[in-house]
## 1
Amino acid sequence: MTITLPDTEQLEFTPEVAEATAGFYEKVRHLVPEFEWQLQAPLIYEINRLKKEQGAVILAHNYQVPQIFFGIADYTGDSLGLAREAMEVDSQTIVFCGVHFMAETAKILNPEKTVLIPDLEAGCSLSESITVEDVKLLKQSYPGVPVVTYVNTPAAIKAESDICCTSANARKVVESLGVDRVLFLPDEYLARNVQKETDVEVIAWKGRCIVHEQFTVEELRAYREQFPGLVILAHPECAPDVCDEADFVGSTTGMVSYVDRSDARRILLVTECSMSDNVQEAHPDKELVRPCTLCPHMKRITLEKTLSSLRNRQYEVDVPSDVRRRARRALERMLVIGRDD
C-alpha cells in the first residue's frame, strides 16, 4: 500500500518498512487494523530515519495517539517530566509532539536549540483563557501576593509569574512559598482541588480544560454501575466533586504509577482518551475502561505533520529573549520542587 503526502513523494509499505516497524505494531495491534497500519508504518519508518539522520529527538505527551507515543517518540511523559527531559537531551533539534505551550517550555529551557512543533495551531483552552493584561490587573488587585502559574500557559504569562507548577507538584509549589495566600492561574478546578489540600488561601482564575470539565459525578457513578469493581483515577483538572468521587486523584504520571502498582482489574482514567490506550499496552492483564473524551488540540499533532516538520524544518518555536529570561526564572523555581504523585 502507498500513501501520498502533499509535500513529499509517495511512501510505500515495503518489506523493509514492515520489518523495521514490526515491533511498534505489536504494541498497537489491538488498536490499529492491519490495513490502517500499512498506511501509517511508512510514515513512522521515514520519521525515525530522518530523526536519526538529523540527530533530532521527539518528545511526546501522554495524550498523543499510540502510533506517535510508541512509534516515534524518544521520550514520553507529563508536562513536568517532559520539561525535565528537554533540559537533559543532547540533541540540537527537539520535535515536540504536544501543544504549543509545551514546545515553548522546551525552548525557554533550551534557548540554543531548535524546537519544532508539527502544528503551530495546537493550542490549549487553559493557555487561551487568560491574557497578560489579566495577570497585571490581578497583581494590582492583590499587591504582594505571589503568582503561581500552571504550565498550561503561554511564555508571556509565565514571565509575569513568580513560579510555575504542574498538576504533579501544584500543592508543593504553593506551600513552598511560605505565604498565607497565592494567586493561582489559570485553572479554576486545579486551584480548587489544591485548596482542599492546603491551608494556604488559593485565589483562582476562571480557566478550565475543555477535556476535563466534561466529566461529571453522574457519569462516574454510571461507570461504576456498568463495571463492577471499577477503580476510578481522576486528573486534578476535573471539577472538585468529580475528584471527590474518584478513588485516586493525580497527574498523568501519578495515574500511570497507580496503575503500575495497583491490583485492580478494572480501571477508569478520567482524562484524555489516548492515555488509556497507551497505558493499556503495558497492562494487558487489566481492563482500561475508556471514556472517549479527546483533546482536539493534541489531536492536531499527526504522523503526517510530524514528518513534514522534520523534512522541512518548519514551525520553529521561538520566545523573545526578555520573555524567555523571566519565564525561565519561574520554570526553574518550579523544577527544584519535587514531584507529588
## 2
Amino acid sequence: MKNISIVKADITSLDTDAIVNAANNHLSAGGGVCGAIFSAAGYAALKDACDKIGFCNTGSAVITPGFDLKARYVIHAVGPIWRGGDQDEEKLLYSTYYESLKVAKENGCHSIAFPLISAGIYGYPQKAAWETALTACCDFQKKECSDIRVVFSVLVDELLDMGNDIMKNLGISSCGGKSENNGSESEKVADRLKICGQEYDACYFHNTNEPYGFLSNWYLSDFTVDGTKFTSMEQYIMYSKCICFGDSITAKDVLATDDTAQQKALGRKVLDYIDNVWAGKRQLIALKGLYAKFSQNEEIKKLLLDTGDAYLVECAVNDKVWACGIDLRDDSRCNAEKWSGKNILGFALMEVREMLKK
C-alpha cells in the first residue's frame, strides 16, 4: 500500500477531504480530539448536524459537513470500549475503520484522516489498536480497489514511532508522515512542473509537517508588521482581512489565539465582508506579510532562497485561491493546465524570494 501515512499533527489542521471524529454513540461533543474537532468546526453547527442524526452504533460511522474545518466532511466513527478483548472489540474496531472508509468513498472523498480510535479513554491497547487500524485500511483498499489516501494523525512521538514500526512489520510502505519540522533538506522532494509544453523545477508543499512545510501560511514563525506581532501568516492574513473591512472586534480575537485553524474560522466571520474587495487586496497583503516573515527569520529565509528559481506550488484540493486546487500526492499537480486553483500563495512566495535575492 502506498496511500497510508502517519503524521504528528493536529487532525483539525489537516486538509484531507474528511477527518474522522472518534465519537460516542450519541454523537455528543466530548473532550480531547473530539472536543477539538467540535471547536474547530464550529460547535453550534456541528452539534446541530449531529443532533439531527441522533445515534450511531458501535462499529459504524456517519457523516456531517466539516463547516469551518479545512476538511469538507467530518466522519463520526464509534469505536468499542475495551473490556478485556473477549467482547468482539477487535471485530468492532475493524468495522469502525472499514465503515468510515466506505462512507468516505460513497461521498467522493479522495483522502481521509483518522485518529487512533478507541486507544484513548476507551482503553484499547495501543499496539493492538494500530494493528487493527492498519489492517482494516489495507483490506479496504484491496477489496474495494480504493485509492483513498489514508492519514493517521497522532500528537505524541511514542504513538508515531509505534505506528511506523507496526507498518513495517505488516509490510506496509508509508507514503510519508513525520514529526513536525521546518522542511529540512532531507524532507525535500525534487519535482517538475509542465507549463505550455515546457518543464521547470518545482517545489510542492501543503501541511507544515510535510516537505517544504515552512512555506505554509500555517507554519509558526514570529514576525512583526507595522508594530503588530504575528505568530504565523495565517494570523496576519486573517487579521488584515478583519482590518480591511473595519471589524476590529474580530481582529482582536484573531490576535488573541495562536491556533491557525481558529484564526481561519474567525476570518470567515468578518463583518461587512465584500469578496471582490478582498480579491483585489489579498495578494498585496500577502506579499507584505511574507516579506516580513522571511526577512525577519534567517533560518527559513535561507530555506526559501535554497529553492532557487523553482516554481513554488501550494497543493490543497479544497483551496482554489491560495493553492492550485490539487492534492499534494496527485500527479496532476505537475501540469499547470490541470490546476483548478490560482496558487496565489505560491506565486507570492516566488515574488518575495526575488525581493530577498536583491
## 3
Amino acid sequence: MILFGSFNTLRVQRITGPGAFLGEPGERDGLEVLLPGRQVPEGCKAGDELEAFVYHDSEDRPVATLQRPKAQVGEVASLCIVATNDAGVFLDWGLPKDLLLPYNEIPRELKLNLEPGQYLLVMVFQDDTGRVAASARLDDFLAKEAGGFNEGDKVGVVISNRTDLGWRVVVNNRYWGLLHASEVFGKVKAGTRHDGWIKTLRADRRLNIALVPPGPARIDPAAQKILDRLQAEGGFMAVGDKTPPEAIYTLFGVSKKVFKQAIGSLFKAHRIVIEAGGIRLVK
C-alpha cells in the first residue's frame, strides 16, 4: 500500500507527456501516482524503481516528488507560517503545496498572534480522511514515559520549550524528554535538531537527555577536537584551568569538565604538554 506523507519505493509503470506514473512493485492494478516530468531522472524508463515522497497536490490529486520535505508523517519539525485563512494555518514544509495546520490542531495558548514568519513546532500526521496535515498538539502524539532505552543510547532530539529546569525536548519523534540546564554549555534554540544521549533512566520512566556522550565515551571525541584545533592553531593554545567554561564550549563544543578530562587523557598519552600559559602539541 502506498503511504501518503512518506517515502515509498515505487516502480515506474509508464512514462507519458505529463511525467512518470509510479506504482507499487508487483502491483498492476493498484494506485498510480504521477511524478511530474520535470522531476523524472534523465534516462529513467519503465521498470525502474524510485524512492518517492507521496502527497496530495493543490488540486487534491495524488502526486509523487523526489524532493525531500522538512518532515514526513510521524516526525516533529519546526515549520514557518506562510499564510492563514479560514481553514487554518499554512506551513512551509519544503514542497510546492504548503502543509495545513487546522485551527483545531492548535492549542488555545498558541492561537494568539499567529503571523507569517513565525515558527511552530508541529507533528506531521495523517488525519481521518487520509490527508497529511500538521498538529501543534504534541501531547496528543508524544509519550511522557519511555521504555526500551539504556543509559548512553544515542537518540535524535528536537528542542521544544524552556522550563524552570532547562528545556523540554522531543526524543526520536515519540517521547518527551528533559534537557537540564546544567547540560547546556552553549546556546540552544527552539526547533533545532541535535544528536542526544540518554543520560539517566528515571524511576518514573521519563528521560533525562544530554547533548554530549555520557561517561568515558565523552573523552575520545573531545580529545580529537582538541588535537584538531591545536593543529589548526599551530600547535599551541592559551587555554587551561582558568579559561571560562563559555570560552571552552565556543572553542571545542564541550563542557569545561569534559575538556579537563580530555586534556588529562591526552597528557597521559604524551600527545600534549600542559604549560603555565596553555597546552601544546607534542611533536
